[in-house]
Amino acid sequence: MTEPDQHDVAASETPDEAAPAAEFVAPAPDLEGVLLGAVDAARAAIVEYSGEDSVGEYLGAGFEDPTAATHRFLADMPGYRGWQWAVVVAACPGAAHATISEVVLVPGPTALLAPKWVPWEERVRPGDLSPGDLLAPPQDDPRLVPGYTATGDPQIDEVAVEVGLGRRQVLSLWGRNDAAQRWHDGEHGPGSAMARSTRRMCRDCGFYLPLGGSLGVMFGVCANEYASDGHVVDAEFGCGAHSDTPAAPGTGSPLFDPYDDGVLDLVERADT
Fold first, then answer.
1. Sequence-ordered alpha helix ranges (H) in 51-196
2. Is the pTM for the entire model greater than 0.70?
3. Number of structural domains, the chain?
């Protein structure tokens, strides 16, 4: 028997994409009997490879070509519920018995398979970056263009030409629009719960610092340490800490009247 190497078993654990079906040619009647009669030899091959306790019930056989058949057995192994042993046997015309060609593990219809592998760069999400982590932009990142190419923002391009300064890469028109849409739809945009709870907007607030360039038409940075300090906010975002928020009447809070604790009578509790 030819013992399968680790590559044979490992490769079978991840099903490949289905190959185009070849035209099936049935084996000759005498050869068919030899191939289908190799059940015991196929089981013995599995036992020799993986042990007696790893083989379950016999599931049947099918032909690969006119000189080969595959016998399948239920795999009885921890962590491989629903998997099957597949043993390929072969015989040439006139042969009295079949020989073992391959022993592999293959997933059955109820096998638990790992999800499709996703490259790490596609799994990264906003907020995943930690101190010390390195995250290079993807090749041909649509958010960036070479620094010597116009960004499409006249206010930025004109200044860059006059000053003669630049960076290797700058934000592209696509990248700028993508960021603007993300900020507009985020928690500091006009559709957030905070913005809907007030009539005042950031564009009229004294703590609002507009961004430079064309993005300044829609966005700025909040400079109120008690509000969205340091965050990019939409011009139509708003909160209760707006610079025009009126002071509370009297000495109470904006929502509640002051509570005078001087009207309380303090009495000593009697021990019982």
1. 120-123, 154-163, 173-185, 193-196
2. no
3. 2
